[in-house]
Every structure is written in C-alpha cells, then in structure tokens.
C-alpha cells in the first residue's frame, strides 16, 4: 500500500504525518512531533536551521522504521529563506518577526512605490515580506557572496536530495512574483538592484525533485497555507480560516484581484494549486499564545477559554496593530492599547478572542465587497479550530455558519498533492 510522508513545520511546532488511502479515505499516523521557535542572536530573531534539519531527518528515520515510505514533502510558513554560497549556508537565518526590515521599507518604496508593487504582485504589505528582507540583506552585504536563496522548506528538501528548487505557491509570499506571469518579476528585481542569478523559474506543486534514502522528494504547496487549503474538505467555494500562529482568511478566486480597494484593504493574492488564494493575514493565535506564555504557562487551554468566557471585559483592540507583532510583553501591549486596564489575565484573553472575532468579521465584509460574492459558510482549520469559544464568537460576529474542522489540514493537503488525490475524507 502506498504511504507518503507529510512534514509540516509551523513557527511553533512541527510534525511528521504518514498517510495512506483506504477505500477513498485518508488514514494517518503522526510519527514525530517537535517544538520550534525563534532564537535571539546578536539582538536579532533567527531560526535554528540546523536544528530544524536534524528534526526533519529524525522524523523521517522514525517513519521509515514503521512504514515503507514512497514519497515525502515539506511545507512551512512563508516569506523566510536561507542564503547559500554554493553548498555553504550563510548564517544567521533571520526570522520574519525580526525588525531588521524597518530601516529599508521606505527605501524600497522610493525605488518602486508600494502601489506599483501591489499592481504587479497583488501581495499585501507586511513589513516582513521577503522583498524587504532581501533588500535589508543587500544593504548589509549579505548578498555579495550569495549564489542562491531558497525558501525554508525548499532549503530543507535541498539538504535531503540536493535539488535547489523554487516552488510557486511559496514564492508568491515573497512579494516579487508577477501576478499575471506567475514568475519572478524582472522589473522589481532590477529596480531594487537584487542579483538576478538568485531568481529561477518556478516549479509547480506535485513536481518530483529528487531522492532521499530511497524516498521520492516531491514539492507540495510548500507554503503551509497553500497546503492547508488543499486539505479542506470543502463543499463549493467558501471562505476559510487557516488558524494557527497567524489566521489566514480568504477564498479561492480564478484570477488575482489587484484593484485599489484590495490594495487599501491590504488583501493578498497568493499562489494556489490552479487558483489564486485571495486572503488576508490576521495576527491569529499568536496573541493568546504569548499571553499564556507570559501570564499562565501551566494553565490548560480549556481552563483559559472557560475563564475568558466567564469574564465580562468587553473592550477590544485592533488585533492586527503592529504593537502586537513582537512585543517584549504581550500583556503590556494590550494594556497600552486599551482605555480600561484588564483586572485579570482572563480579561486579557477575552479581549484577545473578541478582537480576533471582530477582525474576522471585518475581513469577511471586505472579502464579499471585493469579490462581489456573498458567502454563507466559513471553514476553520488548524489549531484554532479546536477553540469552541472563539468559534462561537466568530459565528456571532460574522453571521456565517462556522464549520470548524480540528484536522491537520496542512498535512492533509501536503499528502493530497503527493498522492495526486482530490480531498479525500480523513479518519
């Protein structure tokens, strides 16, 4: 029986999931899980790329010990990358929450205004977009010796099979892929004086790129949200939220929507598997994850949500405000944004959950205006789908029927692409 391995790595954890089809349904087995997170080096936030690779290899070994694996693929978060000088990794590998791009954003927009970047790429403004990171690297001299740049999952697969690949869905998160051609935009590269040799033709999900210890290495949609959308057993075309550290809310569209209204509302047009993912980044479970780490790290989530639900604190914040991106203290960031200081930790959590639900409401309203369509359902997948309190708040705020599917949608999408399957159900 054909078995395939999905390696799904998020900003806070990773997992190795073996999948196989029985009677048209996915059967899965999580064989390995590990923690991930940024580290601070020299005042910057970085990824321990060597530790990530070690975890990838350890999980593969465990999967091989239990099953005969035919193929594997890796997906991770977007925008971050590794620079190479030949076979040598250029360190550090910066994390997107690092603030090094702040000094270059204005310089980038002087060379190519954001309105022009958006018209070309359809990618929403985020201070950590790869385009700004690469210019920061250029100014720091880090590109002078760089022969290649690989997005994080492509780098990890390169270390497995030796192929330097450039997958389409993840490349679109760079803010440098032309929305019409589906390739890196040479005019952006020229305007920002980036080395042309770093940018290669893009490959589609499903492409086999090499072998690792007798296992085929295949490109899935290596941006985790691209795989997550492929893993949703959706009836028709309805909005989705891939709910994790970030909440990615959007819908499939036949072509990019790069008009002024989309630019003003900061919507993104990211690559999908045969479609565009018209979506928006929302701060997501990062807010409550950091509050928990700071205020009550040993308290179970069930108790936190119960106490938050019982709280009567009703003030909210702008969940997407830059102040919440990487504060030293998430509690202090909430205190500074509120007129009334929360009296308990549970007040903070209630504020965070209600603020997220309101941000979902605003995004749904923008989505319907910009697409000219009305939706009646909202699919939620990922870790946040398990949060019944937030799901109820979201249903109340949006007026949509929330279908919360606490499944490993990203891993399932990864498996679907490797298997060439079309959203089988999961058991």
Give a concise summary.
With 427 residues, the chain is α/β, with parallel strands linked by helices. The chain has helices spanning 49-66, 105-111, 114-121, 130-139, 152-161, 168-171, 186-191, 224-230, 260-264, 286-295, 301-310, 330-337, 345-371, 388-398, 409-419, and strands at residues 4-9, 13-22, 25-35, 39-41, 44-47, 71-75, 81-85, 88-90, 93-94, 148-151, 208-212, 215-218, 240-243, 247-253, 268-271, 276-282, 377-381, 401-405, 425-426.
Secondary structure: elements and pairs:
Elements: E1 4-9, E2 13-22, E3 25-35, E4 39-41, E5 44-47, H1 49-66, E6 71-75, E7 81-85, E8 88-90, E9 93-94, H2 105-111, H3 114-121, H4 130-139, E10 148-151, H5 152-161, H6 168-171, H7 186-191, E11 208-212, E12 215-218, H8 224-230, E13 240-243, E14 247-253, H9 260-264, E15 268-271, E16 276-282, H10 286-295, H11 301-310, H12 330-337, H13 345-371, E17 377-381, H14 388-398, E18 401-405, H15 409-419, E19 425-426
Parallel strand pairs: 1-6, 3-19, 6-12, 13-17, 17-18
Antiparallel strand pairs: 1-2, 2-3, 4-5, 5-9, 7-8, 7-10, 11-12, 13-14, 14-16, 15-16
């Amino acid at each position: 029986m054909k078995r395939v391995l999905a390696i799904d790595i998020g900003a806070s954890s990773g997992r190795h999931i073996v999948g196989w089809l029985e009677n048209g349904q996915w059967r899965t087995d999580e064989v390995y899980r590990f923690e991930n997170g940024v580290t601070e080096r020299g005042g910057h936030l970085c990824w321990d790329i060597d530790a990530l690779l070690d975890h990838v290899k350890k999980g593969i070994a465990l999967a091989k010990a239990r099953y005969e694996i035919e193929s594997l693929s890796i997906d991770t978060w977007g925008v971050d990358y590794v620079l190479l000088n030949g076979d040598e990794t250029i360190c550090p590998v910066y994390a997107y929450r690092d603030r090094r791009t702040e000094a270059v954003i204005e310089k980038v927009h002087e060379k190519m205004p954001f309105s022009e970047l958006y018209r070309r790429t359809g990618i929403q403004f985020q201070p950590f977009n790869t385009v700004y990171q690469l210019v920061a690297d250029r100014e720091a001299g880090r590109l002078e010796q760089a022969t290649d740049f690989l997005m994080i999952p492509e780098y990890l697969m390169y270390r497995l099979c030796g192929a330097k690949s450039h997958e389409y869905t993840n490349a679109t998160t760079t803010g440098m892929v032309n929305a019409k051609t589906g390739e890196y935009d040479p005019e952006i590269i020229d305007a920002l004086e980036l080395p042309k040799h770093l940018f290669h033709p893009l490959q589609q999900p499903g492409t086999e790129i090499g072998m690792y210890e007798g296992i085929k290495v295949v490109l899935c949609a290596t941006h985790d949200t691209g795989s997550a959308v492929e893993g949703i057993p959706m009836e028709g075309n309805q909005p989705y939220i891939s709910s994790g550290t970030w909440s990615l809310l959007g819908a499939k569209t036949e072509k990019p929507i790069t008009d002024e209204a989309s630019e003003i509302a900061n919507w993104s047009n990211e690559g999908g598997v045969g479609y565009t993912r018209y979506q928006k980044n929302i701060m997501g479970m990062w807010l409550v994850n950091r509050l928990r780490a700071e205020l009550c790290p040993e308290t179970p989530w069930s108790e936190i949500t119960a106490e938050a639900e019982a709280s009567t604190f009703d003030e909210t914040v702008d969940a997407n405000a830059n102040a919440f991106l990487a504060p030293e203290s998430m509690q202090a960031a909430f205190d500074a944004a509120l007129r009334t200081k929360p009296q308990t930790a549970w007040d903070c959590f209630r504020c965070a959950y209600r603020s997220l639900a309101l941000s979902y409401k605003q995004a749904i309203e923008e989505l319907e205006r910009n697409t000219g369509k009305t939706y009646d359902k909202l699919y939620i997948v990922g870790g946040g789908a398990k949060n019944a309190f937030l799901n109820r708040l979201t249903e109340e705020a949006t007026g949509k029927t929330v279908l919360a599917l606490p499944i490993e949608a990203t891993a399932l999408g990864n498996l679907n692409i490797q298997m060439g399957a079309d959203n089988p159900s999961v058991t």
